[in-house]
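ingest -> fold -> write
write: protein_1
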Amino acid sequence: MTLKIAFIGLGVMGYPMAGYLARAGHEVTVFNRTTERAQHWVAEHDGKAAPTPAAAAGDSEFVFCCVGNDDDLRTVTLGQDGAFGTMQPGSVFVDHTTTSAEVARELRAEAKRRDFSFIDAPVSGGQAGAESGQLTVMIGGDEEDVVRAAPLIDCYAKMQARLGEAGSGQLAKMVNQICIAGLVQGLAEALNFAERAGLDAQAVVDVISKGAAQSWQMDNRASTMIDGEFDFGFAVEWMRKDLGYVLGEARRNGAHLPVTALVDQFYSEVQALGGNRWDTSSLIVPLRKMQKT
């Protein structure tokens, strides 16, 4: 069945995700703050571009969104020309932005008041996962709404799961980011140790990656960390944004996150070195700088 779909936000994640929906045969209308990027998407996928989120959402049965943060999400939903102003009763808003759980609950309540649905559905897998259609999606929202959206999310996901009511998807994404932060710092320290010890770091990784130390980060980032390549992947500034949500939620729920808080400080050191847009694996850079001094 061909559905009318809007997709708001065509960044490194949203652009290919919207493309998968179009290739599945749906009528996709896109909105992006940078008009040129939206026009490029239309030329590639034969969809339509709208001048505002409201115009994109007006006659859509599903509205997907992947923007930057809480403020960006509020702007494209509740702001002037926001999507919530034109969404039809019975339609579904699927938010793939990584945000706070608080804003997810806020927007779910507002959507319900306006007689349509909202689910929070942050993703993991990075740009590569979005481009290959292999994302993992963590979802919060009413079960009926999640079931309705599932076939569309399947267009670009290898795994999706409902974790509970509104905000649960964002909380699960926070768990994901806590795990990643600790793993990347551990990998950075391990590689720096190997180099300081005079070992061939790549040879060591080739061996230990076949044992208990193996992880996605090791498989996909160890070699580039060794080579000092960080101009790709998930940017440090976005990880710090995510960890800000994590640490804020931990203050509310009483969780003790000493390692996560420490890694967040290490990322601030990377930013001080000019690495705002470096990949998150750049945690090894301050360690190497300490080695030289």
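write: protein_2
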Amino acid sequence: MEHALGPVLRIAQYALLMGLFGWSAFWLLGLRSFDWLRAERAPGFAVLAALVAPVVSAALMLMSIAAMMGVPVADLDRPMIEAMIFGTDIGFAFIVRSGLLFAGLAAILALRNRRAALVFAAGCYGSALVTLGWSGHAAATEGGLGLFHRLNNGIHLISAGLWLGAIGWFLVLTFRCYKSPDETQTHAVLKAMHAFAPMGISLVALVAVTGTVNSHLIFGLPNVAVTFATPYGILLAIKLALVAAMVAFGAHHARVSRGAATAMKDGNVYPAQALGALKRTLIAEFLLGVLVIGLVAAFGSMSPTMM
């Protein structure tokens, strides 16, 4: 049971942190001109995710301690837990992450139209996301190269989180406008989706470059053929294929939103018609993003030489 629960908690932690960061950061960066969004408080799903995130992090930490000690979670005692939390790198990362998660939760609960609270929440969740690289493959690299590996991994996660946050926001806004058509709001969403294209390209480029650097630091690019023959390599190849599909969907959305925004401006198409072409592909892109998060969480704890 515990062996099955560990990967589930790891995936949940990645999804929660990337989701919370992407939600808050893209609201600030990509939707700042949307006056009709500023009046809203933090949605229920964001509050729930912020409440669950520290619980999942603590549960995963206990599972990790039990695995390292070779005992069931129920057999852990206070000295064991304290020794691992206060005496190891993974414990230090957990302490920092927990503080950031509770601070982010406080900011979300205090949001109520305060931009400063949203900025603070985005900073907390972005920093918490970076701490995920303080253990695993990045933490295994020592010295100055290890510091560079952690920094590179942090940029990779931040870029991916912002990209996924944009997809999630556009999906929510598309459904909202589709159910309650409003020409002004629909046109604003379509324009924002088209305007996101340069930022989206930059984020994809950062994800690709930092991902390539991560791969080289983990197993060495000259060993890529051998690595792809391992379970780790197979999951990595699947992840790359899913990301490529997401990029294709993103290009499709930019093209469709540009054409729809122009057509709406000329009065040649109704809001429902403009959004209907985007709804299904946004769902597909979002689901692919969820699968990618699951794969990253899964093979992030695997060895590239594992057979």
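write: annotation protein_2
The chain has a mean pLDDT of 82.
The CA atoms of residues 249 and 284 lie 8 Å apart.
pipeline exit 0
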